[in-house]
Amino acid sequence: MTTVVWFKRDLRVSDHAALAHAAAQGDVIPLYVFEPEYWAQTDVSGRQFDFVLESVGDLDAALRALGVRLVVRVGSVVDVLQNLKDSLGFDAMISHEETGNAWTFARDLDVAAWSAANGVTWREFTQSGVVRRLNGRDGWAKQRNAFLRQPQVDVPAGLTGPVLSSDDVPRLVVADHCPERQRGGRQMALSLLGSFLTERGQNYRKDMSSPVTGEWSCSRLSPYLAFGCLSGREASQAAAARQREVKGTREGWGGSLKSFQARLAWRDHFMQKLEDEPALEHLCLHSAYEDMRPKVPDAERLEAWEKGETGIPFVDACMRYLAATGWMNFRMRSMLMAVASYHLWLDWRVTGLHLARQFTDFEPGIHWPQSQMQSGTTGMNTVRIYNPIKQGKDQDPTGVFTRRWCPELTSVPDEFLQEPWTWDGSDTVLDKTYPAPIVDVLDAARAARERVWAVRRGAAFRDEAKRVIHKHASRKDPQGHFVDDRNPRRPRKAEASPAKDSRQMGFDF
After folding, report:
1. Segment 190-193 long-range contacts (CB within 8 Å, at least 24 positions apart)
2. CA dist., res. 392 & res. 445, Å (int)
3. How many Å apart are CA 452 and CA 284, to the nearest integer?
4. Could you read off the pLDDT of 14-67 as tens digits, one per residue?
5. For 186-276, CATH number?
């Protein structure tokens, strides 16, 4: 029996249920398809393409070591499968479930229809804590945690299969300049996991909020988890093993590893939201917010935010850093989205697309629920409007980060760095080498807060909010742990006041 294993966001051979199951049946055709139509979507970018290309190359090397070659094709998946069907006559295909964007969801429907029409049995395996076809969140945590505790799937001892040609892969998306982008592939993921659990992560809990310290202390595993070079279960179980090693010590590891495990749980929690309600990629989770912001954004404000030229130093430094690295620590991701949505009053769909392209670790299931959460359109989360001046002072107290990415501010004294317009010599800098702020930070925040809270008043709003909470809110105990709400002895806590660990964009870890 010959089985096609269709790789998507699972670019590894370890803890890979689909590959192991196919290997047990007989010959295997490992397949990865570069889809031109996907790479033409508005939420993808050159940095992501390059990361995937490197990761696919790493996957091919791992498969060759097991005895087969990865078949890489370019085109629509249906056309590629039809070609393989015509030449080989296979009748079974296996893949992992994917919580992707609307385009990949529609593509999977097309593949399902093709499989049914051509007598191909397509089976999908779970690879994360996301559970399909939920009716509500009660009991979700129990299922998620049970999956994470299951033993990892062994790598097949060896693989057999036909030798097939691969396509040359052209550049399917315009290259973008990201000189400090993380390199793709499982070997990089394992190196980062090891260094995080034994060295870099010791002060994770304390250091992860600042871009100055977070670059080193965060795990930096997010792109590898997003494209499946490493499974969430592998990361969780490795962290659990390390937790057992450091138990009882007073070196800071206990709290940091606990926070890391919480991040992994929140990752699945937010991905579950898009799985349960795919429309939230395009529509406000609570419909009352649908017309709150202009659908057509202020072009000047949008361009200034995208280029890091808002005149708000810490915001600009973060945007420029993100453009150059493809990564940002969690609190700054949240701040960037909040400033765009509240201070600049831009629609989350427009700004969310720009950030999606900037993040090498773009994960639709996390990105879009978080875009809405940080924009105040969910109907169940506390309205959180970051003060970017305060964030700059708190998270970059010496100014080293801001000065590196905004060198135009070299002459501004330290005490005025985050608000140079208050400096007596500001006329030598503002609107000369560096832009004056495009909004008054305090006034813009005040106006935004009034607009958002005006929408929240009224019985109709509360009725829909109850539905949203039932379907999407976390079920946590007072300590912030996810619990099984079917157990009446465990208290419930809705997500109206989200835990500190949930306030992030992209789950950078």
Report:
1. 190/230, 192/219, 192/220, 192/221, 192/224, 193/219, 193/221, 193/230, 193/234, 193/235, 193/238
2. 16
3. 13
4. 999 999 999 999 999 999 999 999 999 999 999 999 999 999 999 999 999 999
5. 1.25.40.80
Which residues neighbour 30 within 8 Å (Cβ) at sequence distance 6 or greater? 5, 7, 19, 59, 63, 68, 69, 70, 71, 159, 161
Q: Where are the domains of the chain?
A: 2-127, 186-276, 280-502
Could you please report the per-residue DSSP string of 286-320? Answer: SGGGTTTS-SS--HHHHHHHHHT-SS-HHHHHHHH
Which amino acid, 265? A
Locus of tokens 């096609």: 4
Residue 211 near residue 405, CB atoms below 8 Å: no
Nearest residue to 334 (alpha-carbon basis) of 326, 342, 324:
342
The correct answer on CATH 3.90.700.10 for the domain covering 280-502 is no
Residue 74, beta-bridge partner list: 34
Domain 2-127 has CATH 3.40.50.620: yes
- Chain-centre distance of CA 342, in angstroms? 22
The Cα–Cα gap between 219 and 197 comes to: 8
- CA 282-286-287 angle, to 5 degrees, is 75
Structure tokens, 134: 């939920």
Q: How far is CA 394 from the centre of its chain?
A: 25
**H or E element at residue 2:** strand 2-7
Q: What does the DSSP 8-state code read for residue 162?
A: -
Pairing of strands 121-125, 92-96: parallel
| Closest CA relative to residue 437, chosen from 314, 324, 342, 297 | 314
What 8-state DSSP symbol labels residue 476? B
For residue 93, what are the CA distances in angstroms to 20, 35, 62, 330?
13, 18, 20, 38
Q: Are 202 and 253 in contact (CB under 8 A)?
A: yes
Task: Read off the pLDDT of residues 160-205 as tens digits, 9 standing for 90 and up.
Answer: 999 999 999 999 999 999 999 999 999 999 999 999 999 999 999 9
